[in-house]
Structure formats: C-alpha cells, structure tokens
Specification:
Elements (H helix, E strand, L loop, with lengths): L1 H9 L5 H46 L1 E2 L1 H14 L4 E4 L3 E2 L5 E13 L5 E13 L6
Antiparallel strand pairs: 1-3, 2-4, 4-5
Helix pairs in contact: 2-3
Length: 134
C-alpha cells in the first residue's frame, strides 16, 4: 500500500498531483476539526472536576450553602468557567445522607463562517455527608 503511493509520487506523468492535493486538503480539514473539537473535551474534564470539588466541599462541611457558594466562586476564577449549579438538597446534610450536584455549561463549537453548533455539557457528582448534626 505504502509502496504504491511512493511509486505514484515518484512518477513523472503528473497523475499523483491531484491525489496529493486531495490528501493534503483532507488532512488540513481533519486538523481544523480537531482544533475546534478538542477544547470541548478539555472543558468537559474541567466541568467534571468542578462538580467533584463542589460535592467534596459539601461532604466536608455537611451543608449546601455559603461554603459551597464560596467554593464555587473560587472554582469559577481558577477554571475560568461559570456553569449553572443545581443541588439535590440545600441546607444541612446529616451524616451519610447523599447529596448530588449537577453542573451545566452551554458552549459553542463554531467553524468560522460555516456555522455555529451550540452544545450543552453536563457533569454530575454525588457524595455522602461526613458531619453529624445533633
């Protein structure tokens, strides 16, 4: 397979020029697609980290309130994203009660003048409280 391509490229008749041009065009299209799509995967990973750290804060403090809001502000600054946050419970969370956070972020994959493709990224994390309230 590879040797046939090399023979075509070495041929002096010019048949391989069109093949090489199409191959280069396709390669550039794949690279352009990767440049636009790969940052979305990175953003999804950041969203997962965001949700995990928020739940961990709720587990340690035993409540969803000012502590988790403060932690969300710190994460907003550190990660550079501002997602919507939804909790399954608000207020004190008793020992071993489960709490879940759902974090949603809308982002846009655009290809210049070709169009805009808005997508919604979701991350969910859950944990159990580590604080006992009398």
């Amino acid at each position: 397979m590879v040797t046939s391509w090399l023979k075509r490229l070495k041929a002096r008749r010019g048949e391989g020029y069109i093949d090489v041009c199409v191959l280069i065009l396709c390669a550039m299209f794949v690279i352009a697609l990767a440049v636009k799509v790969l940052p979305v995967y990175i953003m999804k990973q950041q969203l997962d980290t965001y949700a995990t750290e928020l739940v961990r804060e709720a587990e340690i403090s035993g409540c969803v309130g000012s502590e988790t809001t403060t932690r969300a502000k710190i994460l907003n600054e550190r990660l550079g994203i501002q997602p919507e946050i939804q909790w399954s419970k608000i207020g004190h969370i008793q020992l071993n009660e489960e709490v879940t956070v759902t974090v949603t972020l809308n982002t846009d994959i655009g290809f210049g003048g070709l169009g805009s493709f808005p997508i919604e990224l979701n991350a969910q994390a859950s944990g159990k409280s580590e604080v006992y309230f009398k």
